[in-house]
Write a structure and sequence with these properties.
Helix content: 25-40%
Structural class: alpha+beta
Number of helices: 19
Largest sheet: 8 strands, antiparallel
Shape: globular
């Protein structure tokens, strides 16, 4: 499979003329003779960019021991699940793309959760036939699918790991046993009015002996999490998906008025996937992402539309650049919301959506001023699908890792909503990933929703971990973000800023966010350059703030002639560090 993806990437770039306008990286990652200490933002040999400094330090420590990018990802995830449980954890899922510096192959790993064998299309409908209130569904046992992040990392480690699996959890175990200072974002989530924050398990975990809630800087211990890590370190994913932890998971999701159907067999039979990444040319680059049910096809469709515009001539201070970005986003979201789902269960017309003729047709809908929300198109291979009714709030995180040999891991990891379902087992929260399905399986005419629930099915995801290559198949950059459906817009913004507007990674991440979907333009209004908001309004794009979209958490690394240059989203607590 990796060899196949290498052929795909090289075939895509073979006919592209010219050379990269980014500083051309040497094969793999350029090594620069330097005795400089560990730094933030620039590194000569290896780097980690992730959403919490404690997780980054664990990953860098693995890299210093000679570990691979995947080895470091295991360590980073183990710490993130402890210090950022509102976003990801052992009970969640993930997507990852991995670049092999030797073969220049890009592989996509799918660790998305699966619905249990007992799941039914109407499981999120009430007795009146109407969709359950979202908070009710989230807190119920029905929301939890078989977790996949640990199994996915184990599969990737078997193929690309260098250090022993059992030795990758030590930092997370130590922090869980001895305690860690509560990060600001964790404290804010624990004290916020989320339904999960008020769930009994969360209340117990986040309440101090004096009866008050944890605050930033408090020391929090989680010995149960350390025990779970020791079990997983010794047994691999079986330590989570079989035996004592699995029994506890099944028992917990079966409690309450709306019990889940998850069984021990569902957990034991979970299998992650590996396949060639979905790669397409963008100008003089090749952009690689995971295929459906991840957000990769959506990002590539938006890039395909923007490649047919002159957005590169309009930088971030020009309202026309943001106008083109917004209109291409609306077209992409219309298609994504109608057609995307798990390709093992529904026909996803990826080739049709990315075909040059279809993109040529869709881009002509971008006029001089914004009109009503665009309808989904009819790409080649599309079938009749019901309008989507999926709700996608999200608790998610992203990491990018480059090891000393130039291998790269870009991984987005999630428990879905903040603290998942609010139910804990073994010191970690269970996911509520099944609420990423459409609550209504059909429209009134009986047309099926592409993202309807089905046994064994993986719900649609916006997660879009990205790796960019140059025309010779060499690593240029990697990026990704949390943010529910906004993930696609966040990643797209960073890619346009990097590849078209030629901004360094950190500046690309810092740019204001704009999510254009249907008739809503949700944006960080105060962060745009002078005149942009007014210029967009003159084109019919009226920005608003506060529609409930989760903020970005972009993390990325790029290769330059001076070494690795990383960036971390200032909207979160992450850093980019290396050596």
């Amino acid at each position: 499979m990796p060899f196949k993806s290498r052929l795909l990437a090289l075939a895509l770039v073979a006919g592209l003329g010219g050379c990269s306008t980014l500083p051309a990286p040497a094969p793999g990652v350029p090594a620069i003779a330097s005795q400089a200490p560990e730094t933030t933002g620039v590194a000569a040999h290896a780097m980690v960019s992730a959403a919490n400094p404690m997780a980054v330090e664990a990953g860098v420590a693995v890299l210093r021991r000679g570990g691979s990018a995947v080895d470091a990802a295991v360590a980073v995830q183990a710490v993130l699940g402890l210090v950022e449980p509102q976003s990801s954890g052992l009970g969640g899922g993930a997507f990852m793309v991995y670049y092999d510096a030797r073969t220049r192959a890009v592989t996509a790993y799918n660790g998305r959760e699966t619905a249990p064998a007992g799941a039914t299309p109407d499981m999120f409908l009430g007795s009146d036939g109407k969709p359950l209130p979202f908070p009710v569904a989230v807190l119920s046992g029905r929301s939890t699918g078989a977790p996949g992040a640990v199994a996915m990392l184990s599969l990737a480690h078997a193929q690309h790991g260098k250090l022993a699996w059992s030795g990758l959890f030590a930092d997370a175990e130590r922090l869980a046993d001895q305690g860690f200072p509560v990060p600001r974002r964790l404290a804010a989530a624990a004290n916020a009015r989320y339904p999960q924050s008020a769930a009994p398990d969360a209340v117990r975990y986040f309440t101090k002996p004096d009866g008050t809630r944890i605050q930033a800087g408090d020391v929090l211990k989680n010995p149960a999490y350390a025990d779970s890590l020791r079990r997983i370190a010794a047994e691999g994913p079986k330590g989570l998906l079989e035996g004592q932890l699995a029994e506890a998971i099944v028992a917990r999701v079966r409690e309450g008025d709306l019990p889940g159907a998850l069984t021990l067999q569902d957990l034991a039979q979970y299998r992650p996937k590996a396949a060639p990444a979905l790669c397409r040319p963008y100008r003089i680059y090749v952009v690689c992402l995971p295929p459906a049910p991840a957000g990769g096809p959506a990002v590539l469709e938006a890039l395909g539309l923007l490649e047919r515009t002159d957005i590169a001539a309009h930088g971030p201070a020009d309202p026309q650049g943001w106008y083109l970005f917004a209109q291409a986003s609306r077209l992409m979201y219309a298609d994504r919301d109608r057609y995307h789902g798990d390709p093992d269960f529904v026909s996803v017309p990826v080739e049709g959506l990315l075909s040059p003729a279809y993109l040529d047709q869709r881009v002509r809908l971008i006029g001089p001023a914004a009109g009503p929300a665009p309808a989904p198109g009819t790409p080649p291979g599309a079938r009749v699908r019901a309008p989507d009714r999926t709700l996608e709030p999200s608790g998610t995180s992203h990491m990018v890792i480059v090891d000393a040999e130039g291998n790269v891991a870009s991984m987005t990891t999630t428990v879905e909503s903040v603290f998942g379902s609010g139910r804990m087992v073994g010191g970690f929260f269970l996911n509520n990933q099944l609420t990423d399905f459409s609550f209504s399986p059909k429209d009134p005419d009986g047309a099926p929703a592409a993202n309807a629930v089905a046994p064994g099915k993986r719900p649609r995801s916006a997660m879009s971990p990205t790796i960019v290559l140059d025309r010779r198949g060499r690593f240029v950059a990697a990026i990704g973000s949390p943010g529910g459906p906004g993930i696609i817009a966040y990643d797209l913004k960073a890619l346009i800023a990097l590849l078209d507007w030629k901004l360094p990674m950190q500046q690309a991440i810092d740019l204001p966010n704009l999510i254009a979907r249907k008739d809503v333009y949700d944006a960080e209004i105060g962060k745009f350059a002078p005149g942009v908001v007014e210029g967009l309004a003159a084109r019919g794009v009226n920005l608003i703030t506060g529609t409930g979209a989760e903020g970005s958490g972009l993390h990325g690394i790029e290769a330059t002639q001076q070494g690795l240059r990383g960036g971390a989203d200032p909207r979160r607590e992450g850093v980019a560090r290396g050596f």
